């Protein structure tokens, strides 16, 4: 499980700045809750060997009414979801009543909490920190988020208890090796039809369900078999849980979604065709692709749409989802069951491609053919040579191409080579990564 870090603090202390520094460049996922002006933002990052999820919030100003009130509620929700809270204060502005209010809340909340004094660039950190000991949150840590000062070492320290040790990693690997099921995560915005689809896919009779206790943050893992192939469905929609727990649980959770993507072999990304492709859909797909997972896209609620509307959505899908063109697209109705069974063929194909093994021999011969058809250009009167290729990983497949001056390979040539590999290896449904290494 990825550790979850929440950034809280009053507005303007530098939470967004720190968030951007801690996450990859891609657009953040924003909790899609109606009526909120600035919701929780979610991103993924990695420091040292440790991946994590970061949540940023609008902030808590101490003067909570209207929008501020809602932002404060978001911060509290983020704290609930987090393993670690980074409480940011402004080292230049000094202590503020809102800081004290937040500290109060955090002390009562009993979460693992770090007091982070930001904006200590160009000022004496000790003087800047002196003010904040009275908050009673422990030893303050000075950083300058805007310049990245002390940020990596802070995160290193914060994540130390979550760093998997070698033994745990090996055990986890062994566990995964033993599990021969295809792990499928069904993800999507609230109300796109995930629960309906999960129920359809499981088609009660053939399912052996093991009920597992879990917090609202965890997905339920449902092992089952279909046509002799074992699967594990990672249910982010909480279908199974809702049967047993009567109290309202927040059904949709981005943390849950990100964890499920991480843990899956293949992701089924559900989009509401009647609503069309939204920004949130695109961002979620971006996360799936970044994490290298195999992907099947299900455009749901295809029933009850006029032919004109269908044409419109199809062309929108072609335009907006071009970056996911490696995936198969299905137009389905989870409600009526049409097209649902067909998803499995694409899931299986995507899994097989994601896990495919190619020998160095095979890849090198393919490389030779590709190069013979179209030579890389010469740089400084010296032709770029590509010598051999080997596989560097799977799910996603990684192809490592060795040669000289590979850093100078033009983007157009890389695309030519990648497209040829994808075509000849018949890779479908999974992203594939290419690495170019210079060995002279
Ligand atoms: P948020 O409202 O808490 O998300 O705060 P922002 O990240 O938007 O930052 C508020 C202001 O503080 C911006 O003008 C930032 O450029 C500035 N800021 C953030 N981090 C630092 C820092 O480390 N040093 C200095 N001097 N300014 C910073
Ligand atoms: P979730 O929040 O993504 O799990 O969405 P649900 O499965 O709870 O579905 C949300 C709403 O959409 C419910 O009212 C469903 O009956 C409806 N729905 C789900 N799938 C379809 C479909 O294929 N067609 C239509 N017309 N409605 C659907």
Automatic annotation (TrEMBL):
Report the superkingdom from the record. Answer: Bacteria
Residues annotated to bind GTP 2: 188-195, 235-239, 300-303
Q: Which residues bind GTP 1?
A: 9-16, 56-60, 118-121
Repeat found in the keyword field: yes
One Pfam family in the UniProt entry: MMR_HSR1
Q: Give all residue intervals belonging to the EngA-type G domain.
A: 3-166, 182-355
What UniProt keywords are attached to this protein's entry?
A: GTP-binding, Nucleotide-binding, Repeat, Ribosome biogenesis
Assembly, per entry: Associates with the 50S ribosomal subunit.
Function comment = GTPase that plays an essential role in the late steps of ribosome biogenesis.
User: Which NCBIfam families does UniProt cross-reference here?
Assistant: GTPase_EngA, small_GTP
Homology family: Belongs to the TRAFAC class TrmE-Era-EngA-EngB-Septin-like GTPase superfamily. EngA (Der) GTPase family.
Name by which UniProt lists this protein:
GTPase Der
């Amino acid at each position: 499980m990825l550790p979850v870090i929440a950034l809280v603090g009053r507005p303007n202390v530098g939470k967004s700045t720190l968030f951007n520094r801690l996450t990859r460049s891609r657009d953040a996922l924003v909790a899609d809750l109606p009526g909120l002006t600035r919701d929780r933002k979610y991103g993924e990052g990695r420091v040292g060997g440790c991946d994590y999820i970061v949540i940023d919030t609008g902030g808590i100003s101490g003067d909570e009414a209207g929008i501020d009130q809602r932002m404060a509620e978001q911060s509290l929700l983020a704290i609930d979801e987090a393993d670690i809270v980074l409480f940011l204060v402004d080292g230049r502005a000094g202590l503020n009543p809102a800081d004290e209010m937040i500290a109060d809340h955090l002390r009562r909340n009993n979460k693992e909490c770090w007091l982070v004094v930001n904006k200590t660039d160009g000022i004496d950190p000790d003087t800047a920190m002196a003010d904040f000991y009275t908050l009673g949150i422990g030893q303050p840590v000075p950083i300058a988020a805007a310049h990245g000062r002390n940020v990596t070492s802070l995160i290193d320290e914060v994540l130390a208890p979550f760093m998997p040790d070698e033994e745990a990693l090996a055990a986890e690997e062994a566990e995964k090796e033993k599990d021969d099921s295809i792990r499928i995560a069904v993800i999507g915005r609230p109300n796109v039809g995930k629960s309906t689809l999960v129920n359809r896919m499981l088609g009660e009779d053939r399912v052996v369900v093991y009920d597992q206790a879990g917090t609202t943050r965890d997905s339920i893992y449902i092992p089952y078999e279909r046509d002799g192939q074992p699967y594990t469905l990672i249910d982010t929609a909480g279908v199974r849980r809702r049967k047993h727990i009567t109290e309202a649980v927040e059904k949709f959770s981005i943390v849950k979604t990100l964890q499920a993507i991480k843990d899956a072999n293949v992701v089924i990304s559900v989009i509401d065709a009647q609503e069309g492709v939204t920004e949130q859909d695109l961002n979620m797909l971006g996360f799936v692709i970044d994490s290298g997972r195999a992907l099947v896209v299900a455009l749901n609620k295809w029933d009850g749409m006029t032919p004109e509307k269908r044409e419109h959505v199809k062309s929108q899908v072609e335009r907006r989802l071009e970056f996911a063109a490696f995936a198969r697209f299905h137009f389905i109705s989870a409600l009526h069951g049409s097209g649902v069974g067909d998803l499995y063929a694409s899931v299986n194909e995507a899994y097989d491609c994601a896990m495919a093994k190619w020998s160095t021999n095979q890849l090198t011969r393919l490389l030779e053919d590709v190069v013979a058809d179209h030579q890389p250009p010469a740089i400084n009167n010296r032709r770029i040579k590509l010598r051999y290729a080997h596989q560097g990983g799977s799910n996603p497949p990684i192809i490592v191409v060795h040669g000289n001056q590979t850093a100078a390979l033009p983007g157009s040539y890389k695309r030519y080579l990648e497209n040829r590999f994808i075509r000849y290896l018949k890779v479908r449904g999974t992203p594939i990564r290419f690495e170019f290494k210079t060995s002279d």
